[in-house]
Amino acid sequence: MQLKLFLLFLLIIPGLSGIAYGHTIDAVGEYRVEIGWMNEPVVSGETNAIEFYVSPLIVCPEISEASKCAESQEFQNGISNLRKTVKIKLIYKDENITLPLSPDHNIPGKYHAFVNPTVSGFYQANILGTIVDTPISLSMHPPKVDERSYIEFPEPSDITITQMIDGHTALIEDVSDMKESINNLEKKQSDNIGYVGIGAGVIGIAIAVIALSKSKN
After folding, report:
1. To which H or E segment does residue 172 belong?
2. Under 8 Å CB-to-CB from 85, ≥6 apart: which residues?
3. Does the pLDDT at position 15 exceed 70?
4. Above 50 in pLDDT, residue 100?
5. Which of 91, 115, 146, 149 is close enough to 156 for a disulfide, judged by CB 3.0 to 4.6 Å?
6. Topology annotation, domain 21-145
């Protein structure tokens, strides 16, 4: 039973350690609106853009909440000619900047608001203006901007030797604990050779998962 739980835990780890990215969707009057980052994962210090989509909102008789109704639909039949009537105010703490929209010439109803987020963290995007005849004043939140050092190679210069040593020490301790747990399980299941092979495979997977997780911290 313990071995089964341990294997189940390892299967769950990748889903927890990964970073989820996506767009934020809402509704304004008769329209579905959607925002997100153009390039994901988005990191500080790189030119990016807020993607902004506008399309008609299809009525959902079975869903009373407009935002939930919008989330249940895909972007289609986009609304054009909003470049001059809608702007995005991007806010980070006490700082803000108003960004004009640039239409995507290949996809009607899709726009870009280009920006270089210089600091990691959560930003707020206020959508302001008018969609055709419908006023819009909506606060939306695109996914978090990550620290640029997470993807720099080789190691970023601002990482100290102490931080590197601490990271490797923690990794070694985690692996040692994992091996001890596997050894205990193998002793209890010594009459079944198959468990020994599984234990060895589990160690390999665990080491890879832990190493990946430590490299991102």
Report:
1. helix 161-188
2. 129, 130, 131
3. no
4. yes
5. 149
6. Immunoglobulin-like (2.60.40)
pTM of the model: 0.62
Segment 60-83 shows an average pLDDT of 95
214 vs 217: CA distance, rounded Å: 5
Write out the two tokens for 184: 């205990």
Is residue 213 a contact partner of residue 18, using CB atoms and an 8 Å limit?
A: no
Peptide bond into 56 cis (omega under 30): no
- Are residues 15 and 8 in contact, defined by beta-carbon separation less than 8 angstroms? no
Of 117 and 163, the one with more pLDDT: 117
pLDDT value, residue 96 = 97
Tokens representing 62 are 């079975």
**Across 168-210, where does the E strand assignment appear?**
none
What is the SS3 assignment for 110-168? EEEEEECCCCCECCEEEEEEEECCEEEEEEECCCCEECHHHCCCCCCCCCCHHHHHHHH
% of the chain with per-residue pLDDT over 90:
56
The residue extents of the domains of the chain are 2-16+152-216, 21-145
